[in-house]
Write a structure and sequence with these properties.
Blueprint: H1 4-7, E1 13-17, H2 25-34, E2 39-43, H3 49-59, E3 64-68, H4 73-82, E4 86-88, H5 94-100, E5 107-108, E6 110-111, H6 114-121, E7 127-130, H7 133-136, H8 138-145, E8 153-156, H9 165-169, E9 177-179, H10 185-189, H11 193-210
Parallel strand pairs: 1-2, 1-9, 2-3, 3-4, 4-5, 6-7, 7-8
Helix pairs in contact: 2-11
Bound molecules: 3-phosphoglyceric acid.
3-phosphoglyceric acid is lined by residues 16, 43, 68-69, 90, 131, 157-160, 178-180.
Length: 211
């Protein structure tokens, strides 16, 4: 099993993907893989997200499949049941984190402030999602907090683009970034899988240069 630390080492970018129709799930995952991305955070924001998650985890084992937008213990349980190999939350409460830590998969708890990061750190977790990254202060904020809490590694997500990606990846406390730009809703709607592969390839190439 991948642990919390290694979760952030798999890819410089974690695509945050929202899929309405489970029939699109496998082609999206394969398109990302075709572009060199081996991890996917599937948000639980659609009615049939768990079905999409199950399909990807069963039919595309080459990609590490996680559930994002985990807000409650019940959602976390359902995601693991459906095959989620990791869990991501946009924010963290003590009750949610305590439950996540009982599950047999790595978790990436979301934080946006130093106090929230310290609460997560108290549970022995040093890898966190920083959300919403751009709106909460962006690279300058992350740089400032690397001084008091240098032991924390972040995956900033929210409002990041190909233009700002390298600003985040250059920071010593950023291991990878996340974002939805690799899987635009228009490409999924048009079943333009090649476009998703091209975006994934472009991003991984860009990040190989940046890192
Ligand atoms: C998330 O859940 O991490 C965000 O919705 C992704 O943010 P973005 O759409 O701005 O990339």
């Amino acid at each position: 099993m991948v642990d919390n630390h290694h979760l952030l080492q798999i890819s410089p970018v974690i695509p945050v993907v929202t899929i309405d129709d489970p029939a699109d799930a496998v082609p999206v995952a394969q398109a990302l893989l075709g572009g060199g991305v081996r991890i996917i955070e599937l948000t639980l924001r659609t009615d049939r997200a768990l079905e999409s998650l199950a399909r990807i985890s069963q039919e595309v084992p080459e990609i590490l499949t996680g559930a994002g937008t985990v807000l409650t213990p019940a959602q976390a349980d359902a995601a693991v049941e459906a095959g989620a190999q990791f869990l991501v939350s946009p924010g963290t409460t003590t009750a949610l984190l305590q439950h996540l830590l009982t599950l047999p998969v790595p978790v990436l708890p979301g934080v946006a402030t130093v106090s929230e990061a310290l609460s997560v750190l108290e549970h022995g977790i040093t890898n966190m999602k920083f959300f919403p990254a751009a709106q909460a202060g962006g690279p300058a904020y992350l740089k400032a907090i690397s001084a008091p809490v240098p032991q924390i590694r972040f995956c900033p997500t929210g409002g990041i683009t190909t233009d700002t990606a390298s600003d985040y990846l250059a920071l010593p406390n950023v291991s990878c970034i996340g974002g939805s730009w690799l899987t635009p809703q228009s490409a999924i709607r048009d079943q333009n899988w090649q476009h998703i592969t091209d975006l994934a390839r472009h991003t991984t190439t860009l990040m190989a240069v940046a890192s």
